[in-house]
Amino acid sequence: NVTDPDYLYHGVFEWDNCHKHFHFQHYGKFLFGQTAGHKVGFCLQTTWRYFNTEYTYLNTPYDTCAYQGISVGWGDDYVAGLGCQWIDITGLPAQTALLSDDLNPDGFLCEGSLVLNSSNAIQWELTNYTTSYGYPVSRAKCNFTKNWNSNNHDSINYILHNNLSFVTEPCTRGQSGPLRDCGFQVQNDIIECIPSENVTLGFYLEEYKQTPSVTVRICESSRALGGSTHCEYVYALAMTVVELSSTKSNPAKVTFQCPIARDNIESGGLYSILVAPTFIEDELVFVNIVK
After folding, report:
1. What are the distances in angstroms from CA 149 to CA 109, 133, 203?
2. Which superkingdom, per the lineage (predicted)?
3. What is the pLDDT of residues 154-163, one digit of tens each?
């Protein structure tokens, strides 16, 4: 459990501007081939009870980033797509490479017993690491258990396709319904609009189509990527389900705000249309658009 304020004073924690709370550094390293992950710090928050044993408490005090720690038998789950959690593969060619993680690679988490002085205070040792501001970082002394890091590494072979993401890859676990984040296809990669103005679109299916309904997802498009961001449903500009009852004169409608500028490169004004059969067993078809 990381509860001692000395962890902050010794440079182990640093403020993270992306998540707006302190992060524990040196928690893990993540690689795709030789491309490193963006996020190297974590808020050690107890979020999910994995085991139901006499050693696993039903409640935990470490449920916020203000008082951090991982309780015995619990874990810290992160949802896919959380900001600043990524390995940036922008510009990488299609390839197969190892997607790997190494947890506690620098020994900053004591997987054993802490070395304490006669007053039961944690003993510290200076390392060669520095904070982002150049200050030295110390590590809590630890008597590590035998083979403490034997299960701290994992890796899989991952195939990187050009212009694809997990949102546009096939669903492999039976996911179905409009809120799933797989099985979509880009119908329109880049459509221009006036930043910050509302856009209203209508959609309908041809009468002869056999698919009973199609989910339409509106995503922001990127000038840097040259196409759609393949957004998850939580980041979609808009979504709707288009059924056979929708017609050209009575389409399924969505209204959303045209993306605004993010910086000098991403100047806004671009969106894309992704489609998927609402139910995974149905055929994928494109929708007709009414502007």
Report:
1. 11, 29, 54
2. Eukaryota
3. 999 988 877 7
